[in-house]
Structure of Thioredoxin:
Amino acid sequence: MTTSLHIVCPHCDAVNRVPDERLGEGPTCGKCQLGLFTGQPVDLSNARFQKHIERSDIPVLVDFWAPWCGPCRTMAPFYAQAAQRLEPRVRVVKVDTEANQDLGARYAIRSIPTLALFRGGREVARQPGAMDAGNILAWVQQQLNR
């Protein structure tokens, strides 16, 4: 029996059902026809954030950051490298806490950058501080194996 997963489109936010075994085959959105996985972090605003964490059946890794933050800018290319390796099994997103202050407040983000991993709409792990791609990948894998 084939298991289908709900995947939120990074372009139009439509919820798509994708058979689990087809995740790695470059699935496209049924609404906008663009790829469901880009290999790049998806920038999310307040309006889009909840849909992505609540409706995605795959884990969602969030980088809470700000443009004025030096460590955030240093970590950004490593985070993008990690996105290439984590997708399609993990959705990788970014939230600018300067532009989306209520999200930072809602999730009690006290330092940036902070990574948070969500499953089924709930935060399951958090890691503050800048990391390189290898450490991001190792941390995510450790959390997924729990």
